[in-house]
Amino acid sequence: MKRLPWIFLFFSIFYCAGGQPNSDYGIFGGVSTYLGDINPGRIMYSPLPAAGILYRYNLHPRQAIRGSIFYGGLRANDLDFNNVFQTTRNSSFTGSVAELAAQFEFNFLPYKTGTYIPDKMKIPDGMPSDKYETTFIYEKDGQQKEFTLDNYPANDTTWMFVDQRSVLVSKGYTPQIHDLVLTTADNEDITETVLKSKGYTFLMICKKLEEADTDKLDEGMELGRKLSTAGFDFYILTASGAEEITKYDKSLAFCSVDETTLKTIVRSNPGYIMLKEGTIMGKWSWAGVPSFDWLKNEYLNNN
Predict the structure, then answer these.
(1) What average pLDDT does the segment 252-275 reach?
(2) How much of the chain is helix, strand and coil, in % rounded to 5?
(3) Nearest Cα residue to 197 out of 179, 175, 218, 182
(4) CATH architecture of the domain covering 191-301
(5) Any idea where the domains of the chain sit in the sequence?
(6) For residues 23 and 81, what is the distance between their CA atoms, to the nearest angstrom?
């Protein structure tokens, strides 16, 4: 039975050529290689250039349609292999393959446009919470004894408290957003302050400053400075350490946030979110973030 050729993308580079609040488009490139009768298993055999374009339109904060076109070259020759059968057969070909694809995307992540974050941090009514079994250890006449909440000697002064142990016996409901904590350089938790702010808050999310493109960081910080001057609150959320943070402008407000949480909020490094009173008004990657003029007009001049 013949095996159909297929494309193996070994190396691919994506570049977002542009974007608007409701759409984005870009190009990607790499190489394609053939696997089939002539090449049954050699990886990266005779690679040829491959490229494509894509376009995504956001129908809804959770829903989008995406289309892409891919084109790549293929070639193979029996004489490239030390196989008697193939040498005798002496087959070869050069060709190309194209793909036109369309897909529907649904965003299941909690940090989507339109989300009121405080609601996602609550345990809904009727849902179980974590249950713990607490044991109290008291000592009397040199002997230690364990008690429960039901029988510990609260009013018996002859017993001396020694220790308390709590063990999780039943895991309860975990809110969709349960690990969002914004901590300043002074070790102050400002999560509630940010989520309750009456004005607009622009968050630049950079999971690791040292891993981000320097030019993209500079562009994001400059955008943040302009927005601050215009009346927006601006914070940079990162999981980088204090030593890395001190390399940047000390007038900027940095907050430490768990790295996994930042990846859940937005995948790009950096990425951006606009908040108002705890609601996500907009969300962008570094490639699609709007200009200062657009943000000012959309969020300040129209409200």
Answers:
(1) 92
(2) 20, 40, 40
(3) 182
(4) 3-Layer(aba) Sandwich (3.40)
(5) 6-106, 131-170, 191-301
(6) 47
Measured CA to CA, the distance from residue 87 to residue 96 in angstroms comes to 24
Query: Residue 109 is encoded by which pair of tokens?
Result: 């992540």
What is the per-residue pLDDT across 202-251, written as a single tens digit (0 to 9) for each? 999 999 999 999 999 999 999 999 999 999 999 999 999 888 998 998 88
Q: What is the dihedral of CA 76, 82, 87, 91, to 10 degrees?
A: -10
User: Which residues in 208-247 are b (16+ Cβ under 10 Å) and which e?
Assistant: ebeebeeebbeebbebbebbbebebbbbbbbbbeeeebee
Tokens of 37: 């009768």
**Residue 118: which H helix or E strand, with range?**
helix 117-120
For residue 17, give both structure tokens.
Answer: 């050529």
Q: Look at residue 183 and give its three-state secondary structure.
A: strand
**pLDDT recorded at residue 302:** 67
In tens, the pLDDT along 94-132 reads 988 898 999 887 666 788 888 899 988 888 888 888 888
Where residue 274 falls among pLDDT bands split at 50, 70, 90?
A: very high
Say if CB 68 and CB 53 are below 8 A apart.
Answer: yes
* pTM attached to this predicted model: 0.60
pLDDT tens, 38-67? 998 888 899 999 999 988 887 765 678 889
The letter for the amino acid at 223 is: L
Contact 16/24 with Cβ under 8 angstroms? yes
For 48, the token pair is 């040829």
9: buried, middle or exposed (CB in 10 Å: 19+, 13-18, 0-12)?
middle
What are the structure tokens assigned to 68, written together? 């892409």
DSSP designation for 155: T
